[in-house]
Amino acid sequence: MHRKNHAAAAARTALVAAIAAAFPLLTSGAFAAPEPAEPAQKPWLDPSLDADQRARLAVQAMTQQEKLRWVLGYFGNDFGTKSKKHPDALHQSAGYIPGTPRLGLPALFETDAAQGVASQAGPNVRERTALPSGLATASTWDPQVAHAGGAMIGAEARASGFNVMLAGGVNLQREPRNGRNFEYMGEDPLLAGIMAGEAIKGVESNKLISTLKHFVLNDQETGRFELDARIDKAALRMSDLLAMELALERSDAGSVMCSYNRLNGPYACEHPWLLNEVLKRDWGFRGFVMSDWGATHSTVAAANGGLDQQSGHEFDKSPYFGGALEEAVKTGAVPQKRLDDMVTRIVRTMFAKGVVDNPVKPGGAIDFAANGAVSRQTAEEGMVLLKNEGRILPLANTVRTIAVIGGHADAGVLSGGGSSQVYPRGGIAVKGLLPATWPGPVVYYPSSPLRAIQAQAPNAKVVFDDGRDPARAARVAAGADAALVFANQWIGEANDAQTLALPDGQEELIASVAGANARTVVVLQTGGPVTMPWLARVPAVLQAWYPGTSGGEAIANVLFGSVNPSGHLPATFPQSEQQLPRPKLDGDPKNPELQFTVDYHEGAAVGYKWFDLKGHKPLFPFGHGLSYTTFAYSGLSGQVKDGRLHLRFKVTNTGNLAGKDVAQVYASPLATKWEAPKRLAAWSKVALQPGETKEVEVAVEPRVLAMFDEKSRTWRRPKGKIRLTLAEDAAGTGATSVTVELPAATLDARGRAR
Q: Which of 112, 219, 292, 729 does the annotation list as catalytic?
């Protein structure tokens, strides 16, 4: 979601005042016609009826003015100051839609986002539990972990008085420099769709509405309001749209948030093909489409194009779904049945998700200790051991001297910026960092890796150096048994990384420390992939992402082996930007309103598929992740059952420690061509004791084995042979393969056999 910076606050306040003067219907007495009497009976409140029946009955009982109120959303407050226009809106909230008390329908109280209950900039921030970044969750490759995290933040949202959570980010990582990659689930549609779907399902298990966002191709922040994303429709169906389709099927998300950008011309929030044809017709979506804050550009085109609710209208040029929509319905430019459909979708979702029958109120109890443990487990499961030459990790608790260097590791762990920012209990651990305003402030959670390391090795001498002087840091490291360098990259909404190199001289710092100590471990806290020109000089690298509220403890647990790392990369790490489809980031960050196009010429060949197609060798492949133990595969076989391909195989822990393996299956066609040589077809995360073997069965998603035909709106798979490769990563490490012959098949747009 978009949040203006403080410098623009005064201008926005003046704009809102002007709007209120020009449109008196939008003041606190919105649509100020006399309220009708409360009905004697309210059959729509009968929970024995299904959501469709209840919604129809409720909308039939509404006046036209009541209907119009549901489709216009407000920003909940003015950056920490309670909204005077809507005194019932919760402070520090993202959005507010007044209810219809006469009919027993509550207001919608909306909060950001997928890492937890967020606060906007300003006073009186709400302190809540933060999950690790979405990439960390995706790195677990464990749907149960994603579900547990979603359930935890959803519970905190309900306890805080919110019934809508703007979570569910699943934009594919086409652009590794994207400032919001940390909110999302990586580059592969199968992995991203399943993991995001489980996270959304977890949120909604609390009788809340969650979104699925940002629909679609909001894959970079530079120029996000005006860029025109150009892509072949069939390729889009097999990549970004497939990820969202799978997430929607797995979760039944109550709302879809359309994105800022244009798509092949039209804005996403007034795009009939995207919203009416793909989402509502082909996928059968029965929830409602809300706009991103500032993503609505019209009344008639948006309403007829499939947008159901304008969000945070103060961020748009006009309250398009206010008086203008009322007039458009009167003239027939927007049919009355379309307005009724918009409202029915919103109210039906409220009934279906339990929002009406389970009203929220702020001030609920929160078990911060238990929720911190959920965050810590997600971080531990998602950390990726990228390199461990000579098995330098795990560190022995008998180590005598440890140098901890850089990254503010004495104070806390880093988080990403923007509207998803969760403020921690105990406040911001590092003060005075820039930017102090949007998309900042830069927030470090007060979970100190240094203190957690000291707790793991109580008999060791642990010294800290801030890393600002590489020569001094090298001297500190030279006398230690092990040197731990914390290297950070801060990104956030509206703030793409301009390069994949680590900022602020940290590459020089790592090289200096590694030159002084052969047992140097680099711990990365980044929002996505980074390049590593120093990699050959260090024996061990741990990717910690943004590790959340309990990140310091999680990092220490992995470094010392209390937790055996089991995370695997959800995105390819390139050796350099020159390996990317667009070596230079499109657009100009200094001119965000500049109109330009982004040519997604790679189509569905995103991430590792692009690297395979072009023969590039990555720095670290998609799916890569090391363990403190070792695994082996055997017995791979395939069989078609009930029209679906099933695979069986065995995984054995061949090492001396208990651990978890992520066994990945990649499919390659032998009789036809896809957009790239192979696709992720299935996976399983398996926990094994030393010497233990488990037999695993996985079902292959049928759409992964087919190509989409836009003309017929079907998935088509010709008869032929498919090679299935079981491996540790997309590079084929530890691979074993089997070839199966599949019959021809045609699936509808939802992947069902025809």
A: 292
Q: Where are the alpha helices (DSSP H) in 445-576?
A: 449-456, 470-478, 506-516, 551-559
**CA-to-CA distance for 290 and 96, rounded, in angstroms?**
12
Per-residue pLDDT at 149 = 98
pLDDT tens digit string along 370-398? 999 999 999 999 999 999 999 999 999 88
CA 199, 201, 202, 207 torsion: positive or negative?
Answer: positive
Spatial separation of the C-alpha atoms in residues 630 and 558, rounded to whole Å: 16
* Catalytic (active site) residue 292: yes
Q: How much is the pLDDT for 288?
A: 99
| C-alpha dihedral (400, 404, 405, 410), degrees to nearest 10 | -150
Helix residue spans in 457-614 (DSSP H): 470-478, 506-516, 551-559, 608-614
Are 145 and 381 in contact, with CB atoms under 8 Å apart?
yes
Give the number of other Cβ atoms within 10 Å of residue 592's Cβ.
15
In angstroms, what CA-CA distances link 279 with 98, 117, 300, 308, 334? 26, 28, 19, 13, 20
Q: Residue 252: how many CB atoms within 10 A of its CB?
A: 18
Q: Per residue, what are the HEC states of 402-454?
A: EEEECCCCCCCEECCECCCCCECCCCCCCCCCCCCCCCCCCCEECCCHHHHHH
Which is nearest to 646 in space by CA: 678, 691, 675, 684? 684
At residue 741, φ and ψ (nearest 5 deg) are -105, 130
How far lies 724's CA from each of 303, 488, 698, in Å?
Answer: 45, 38, 12
Question: Which backbone phi and psi does 669 adopt, to 5 degrees?
Answer: -80, 140
Rg of the chain on CA atoms, in Å: 26
The CA distance from 106 to 648, in Å, is 49
Residue 647, beta-bridge partner list? 638, 698
State the Cα–Cα distance between residues 179 and 410, nearest whole angstrom: 26
pLDDT score recorded for residue 85: 65
Cα separation, 351 vs 309, whole angstroms: 17
Which residues sit opposite 414 in a β-bridge? 444
* CB count in 10 Å sphere of residue 32: 12
Cis peptide before 359, with omega less than 30 degrees from 0?
A: no
Measuring CA to CA, which residue among 555, 525, 403, 401 is closest to residue 464? 403
Structural contact between residues 83 and 120, judged by C-beta atoms closer than 8 angstroms: no
- Predicted pLDDT of residue 643: 84
Chain-centroid distance of CA 16 in Å reads 31
- Torsion (CA) 574, 576, 577, 578 in degrees, nearest 10: -110
Residue 87 gets the label, from left (phi > 0), alpha (psi -120 to 50) or beta, of alpha
Residue with structure tokens 């795009």?
271
The answer to whether 656 and 690 have CB atoms below 8 angstroms apart is: yes
Distance CA 684, CA 343 (A): 41
Phi-psi region of 663 (alpha: psi -120 to 50; beta: other; left: phi over 0): beta
Residues in the chain predicted with pLDDT less than 50, given as ranges, are 2-31, 80-83
| Cβ proximity of 259 and 268 under 8 Å | yes
Q: Are 84 and 16 in contact (CB under 8 A)?
A: no
pLDDT of residue 78: 58
DSSP lists the bridge partners of residue 724 as: 667, 738
Query: Which residues have C-beta within 8 Å of that of residue 304, sequence separation ≥ 6?
Result: 272, 334, 338
Q: What is the reported pLDDT for 33?
A: 59
Q: What is the distance between the alpha carbons of residues 680 and 572, in angstroms, rounded to a whole number? A: 13
pLDDT tens by residue, 417-453: 999 999 999 999 999 999 999 999 999 999 999 999 9
